[in-house]
Amino acid sequence: MRDLYTWLSIALIVLASVTGDILLARAMKRIGDLGELRSRRGLLVVLKRVLSSRTFLLGVACMALAFYGLLLALSWADVSLVGPASASLTFIGNAVAARSFLHERVDGRRWAAVLLVAVGVALVAV
């Protein structure tokens, strides 16, 4: 039963982390170049734009959920499983989500890396 809880918490980490990364990326693309905005309008305008973005705040909440999921998983399993599994599955999820939701170009090298990471996760899980 502990293995089931471990893998469910790893799934929570991955889902929350990938969702947070996608939401934060989308928010920052909408806001624009922060350095340019700060130099033109000032730091307070940058802070106001970032902190008034619902997408940004939801992304931060998802990242916080991923962090607490990590703490939960570490209470059930060893860091030697939870760390690599959650990080590498998040890498895979980010590549798929970037292509699907952000319409980013993911080249062949990244897909090859995703495949190698997936094989590594399978080896760690056994």
Distinctive features:
6 helices, mainly alpha, 126 residues
Write the layout of secondary structure elements.
Blueprint: H1 2-31, H2 34-41, H3 43-51, H4 54-76, H5 79-101, H6 108-125
What does this structure look like?
- It is globular, with a radius of gyration of 17 Å.
- Helix 1 crosses helix 5, helix 2 (34-41) packs across helix 3 (43-51) and helix 5 runs antiparallel to helix 6.
- The protein is mainly α and 126 residues long.
- The chain has helices at residues 2-31, 34-41, 43-51, 54-76, 79-101, 108-125.
Basic shape: globular
Secondary-structure-based class equals: mainly alpha
The termini sit apart by: 16 Å
Uncertain segments: none
Largest sheet: none
Provide a concise account of the structure shown.
The chain has helices spanning 2-31, 34-41, 43-51, 54-76, 79-101, 108-125. The protein has 126 residues and is mostly helical. It has one domain.
